[in-house]
Structure formats: structure tokens, C-alpha cells
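Two records follow; treat each independently.
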Amino acid sequence: MSFFEGLISTDPTEEPQPPNDPSLPAYEAPHDEPLPPERWFIPARLPHTAELGAGPDTRLMLSGWHVWPRSVTIRVEIFRRRLAQPHSPRRAGRSAAGALRCGMLLGDGRKVTTLDPAPTTATNGPTGPSLRLEGGGDGFHEHLVLHLSQLPPEGPLELVVEWPDEDIPETRTTFDGTAVRAAGAEAVPIWPEAELFATPSTNGAARAAR
């Protein structure tokens, strides 16, 4: 006698479903990658911690880098010792004039910020990188993700933050962009034996990010 005899319910009869192929699409290595390709790779991880900005009751801390073959994600933690209300402009994701803003000065002199207009489809060649800020958490601790849609060029990489609502002044922290860029080669493909890696394309960003 089975230990579970008499306790297992039978499966209901299922109606026939139309044919469906829920296969993972091919990864097309794009010039610009607005979202991390989490379905295809384990990123290279750079365990770098640093204070990015500080106010009277708030700290912005870097907790690490996730480097993909074509882009990079920066992990940022917010710590508070006074509670931020759910609908307060002090929450990082609010779009008020005093909200958190982040930017990068790349080694080749280009500047990219979270205040830049959303990129549009390129018609005359490749576009520059974009910087996307997402995340959330409770009032005392929030997890943020800054995604740079292209690997930084070689040279110094400055991360700039400012948060007027938290009395955090403009603060610059310099990193080694050459090391970050090189780490992209260490990202691990999940399905290296499958035909999931198409020829690089400047139009592959949307497909890669799905």
C-alpha cells in the first residue's frame, strides 16, 4: 500500500489546446541592449562595494557589478535610518524635481544620465548608450538597478549621483572602465550547445531583452 494512497486527487480532463512553441528565441547580440539578457547568460560579477553618496539620513551604496557581453548592470542599495512614506517624493522612483538622478561620464568623454529622453530607433547608424534606473523596496532599504545599455569604453568611468530630496549633493566616484569592459568576456552562456546565438545585429536589442 502506498503511503499516500487515497490522498491523491486525479487530474482534471484538459481541453485540447492549439499548437504552441514556447521556445526561447535566439539571442541577437545587439549594438545597444536596453535590458540585461538574463535568459541567455549568467553575468560576470565584480564584487565591488563603495559609498556613492551620503545625506543626513540616507546612504547610497554600490554593492556590485553584473557585466553582460554587451551591457552592464550596477547594483545600488539605499539605506535609511528614517522611514520614507510609500508616496513620498523621497522614494527613489518618483519623478519629482528632487528625486534621485544618476549619470555616467565615459572614458571617451560621452555623458549619459537617467534624465535623458528615451532612445528612439536609430535611422542613421548606431546610437549612444542609455542609462535605466529601476528597483524598489521598503522605506528603510531599497534595491536599485542601473543598467548601462552598452559596455563602457576603456578608460576611467565616473558614476555621478545627486538626490536633493535626501540632501545628497552631486557626488562622483571613479571606476576602471577598462576592467568593467573586459569582464564582459567572462559572462557565461546558458545554452552554448544550442543554436540560440544569431549573427550580431543593430536591430536585436528588443528581441534580446524579451
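The next record belongs to a different protein.
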Amino acid sequence: MPARSLPNGSGFGSGLAGVILPGRRRVKNPLGPSESEVRANLAGEASADAALALTAAAQAEEPTADDAVPAVPRDLTAAAFFDVDNTMVQGASIIHFARGLAARKYLKTSDLVDFAWKQVKFRVTGRESSDDVAEGREKALSFVAGRSTAELARLGEEIYDEVIADKIWPGTRALAQMHLDAGQQVWLVTATPVELAQVIAEKLGLTGALGTVAESEDGVFTGRLVGDILHGMGKAHAVRTLAVREGLNLKRCSAYSDSHNDVPMLSLVGTAVAINPDADLRELAKNRGWEVRDFRTARKAAKIGVPTALVLGAISGALAVILARRKEQNA
């Protein structure tokens, strides 16, 4: 599968009043939405635009026959939306990606350990530190700045095959296939960069992916985001925007996630399912009558096993890269 990247340009999404991006003038709008809401809306709109562009590019490369008939009749107004980290993929996809980058000496091992530790804190506490989010965003943007979008897509494909492919939850993959077999669109929705998210979607045979969009010009990343990281309300806005563009009826759609942070997205659709849920989402799902699917092996995973496994898994992954580096240096 050839590496695909976003079309050249300065990013997706329309300018919204009040948005603050590096190098852009601040527009005051005291009666309008907050800065964070504007960023989330812009991120969601940009993500939907990027997802449709990447999906169209992928479809254009597929061989077609004039008399081709779809194997499954299409259900044009229903779709399924899947979170990625700990829902479709075991662990955090960005950590797996960082491991692959560190192995290729794109990242320092200290950066990998730092990424892993912040992810562990989030999974154990169920809360994200604004400082951690900001620091992670700046590190990620500093990494991609000046690199080509095609390079990131190529690295994503290589690292998926090496690291991520074996970490797909079979149970969640089966749920996605159920929707595909019903002729419905199936989209990933994630804070992971859209180029990497699209790779995962294509490898799994899904429709496409909504992810964080980094601004690019002439096929090169500028080091700025379009809006913000696709998270929380941003995911909900991306799903809503895509539904409008694709003519979907959200009451007939389904959404799957492990995190309480995705409640805005889960609340948009007619069928919400908690997958491997954190404690807060499990409680909310119980109160709202949402279905819960837990594919983790330990019965008490949400309370004890998951934090322990995450600590060991994340740190061991970072240590594996460090040991490999030392072997290379001693060889």
C-alpha cells in the first residue's frame, strides 16, 4: 500500500472567530464560544475534511471494474465510530509509534520514556494534565516541523506492520467487521495524527479515520496544528461534521470508546458502547444503559490489573528500545 499524505495546502477547516493559532491574529469575541471551544470546533472540522480527502485518495487508487457490484448493499445513513487507544488498539497508538521512531533514532529514548510515563499517569488516574498535554503537543509538533507529510505516512505504515498490527483487540475488530458486513461506514476517531490513523484504518479495511490535523504547506509540516488535538468535544464535532458531509443519521449510528473523555462523542449517536471502559465511563454507561464490552482478560482489570499492566507494558517498551540501543553501541 503506497504511503498517502494530505493534499498540499495550509490545512483544513474554516477560520472561526476567536481562534488563536501561532502566527495568527487574535480575534476577540466576548459573546462567542471560549477559546478552547473554538479550537475544538476547528480541529473537528479540519479532521473531517482531512479524513474525506485521504479516503477519497485511497479509493481513487483502488482498481475498479465498470460492472463492479458491491458485495454488500450499502447502508447510506448509518455508520460506526471507534476510538483507537485501548478501544481498537491495546495501549496508546502514539506510544507504539514513538517506539518505532526511537528504534529508528528519530526520537531520544528519554522522550519515549517521558511519553510512556505521561500515558501511564493518564490511564491510572483517568485524568489528563493540561501541562502534560501541552508539553506532549509541543514535542510532537517540533518533531514533525519541516518533515514531509509523505515521510510521516511512510513511517506510519512501517511501524504499524512492526508494532501495532499485533496489538489490535480481536473483539473490537470483530465489532467493526459487523458494521462493515452490514454495509455501513466505519471510522476511527482519535487524537493520533490523521496520517497515522488513516494507516491503521486502511490496514484494517475500514472506511477511514478522523484524527489530529497538523498544518502543512507544499507537503511539509509547518509545526502548527489546525485548531487543537482532536480530543473530547473536538471528536464530537468531527463526527457531527462528517455526518453532515456524508448524509448520516446520527440516531442510526454507533460509537465505541474506553474513555470518559469521549462521552461527548458517545452521546451524539443512537447506540453507545463502552469498550474496556475506565471506571468513570463504566459507571456512566451503567447509569445510561449503554452496553459494556470488556475484552481484557483480568476480571478486575478496571480497578487493579490495567494500571499495573500499563505501567509494566509502557515502561518495558521503552526499556526494550534502550537495551537495543546499548547493544548497537557495544557491537
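Discussion point: The chain has one domain: 35-62+74-330. How would you locate this feature using only the C-alpha cell line?
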